[in-house]
């Protein structure tokens, strides 16, 4: 059955089902998880989708199994696990305003890239490992 996903400023993503070619879509499922407006959605693989939000989180979803959702993490300058006594700064990045996913050589490097509001920093993520990437890239 064909479907579409919509997202808005109400923090929700809605999965709509289209049962017949000439019919109006009907609400199938609400995909929850973000606490601020969703800024970008990208599909990859056959049944997978990632979303980015102004809350700074990137989340992965299985489109067929609506009960499967995974947080890939929050956009920070360092990973939460790397914050220690020597590295005590936990600096969140600006909200994510744009995202893109590429599947070529997805196993070799991070394949999700996010642009942040009013920031020269671009964050990377891995849909395969379902985690924040190792790199922060500056546009300058």
From TrEMBL:
The protein's name: Uncharacterized protein
Biological process terms in GO annotation: rRNA processing
GO cellular component, one term: Pwp2p-containing subcomplex of 90S preribosome
WD repeat start and end residues: 31-71
Top-rank taxon, per record: Eukaryota
InterPro entries per record: WD40/YVTN_repeat-like_dom_sf, WD40_repeat_dom_sf, WD40_rpt
Keywords: WD repeat
Organism: Panagrolaimus davidi
């Amino acid at each position: 059955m064909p479907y579409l996903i919509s997202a808005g400023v109400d923090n929700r993503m809605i999965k709509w089902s289209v049962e017949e070619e000439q019919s109006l879509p009907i609400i199938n499922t609400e995909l929850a998880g973000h606490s601020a407006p969703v800024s970008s959605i990208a599909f990859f693989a056959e049944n997978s989708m990632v979303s980015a939000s102004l809350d700074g989180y990137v989340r992965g979803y299985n489109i067929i199994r609506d009960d499967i959702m995974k947080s890939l993490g929050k956009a920070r300058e360092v990973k939460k696990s790397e914050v220690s006594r020597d590295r005590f700064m936990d600096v969140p990045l600006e909200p994510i305003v744009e995202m893109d996913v590429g599947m070529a050589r997805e196993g070799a490097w991070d394949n999700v890239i996010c642009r942040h509001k009013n920031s020269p920093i671009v964050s990377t993520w891995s849909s395969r490992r379902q985690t924040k990437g190792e790199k922060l890239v500056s546009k300058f």
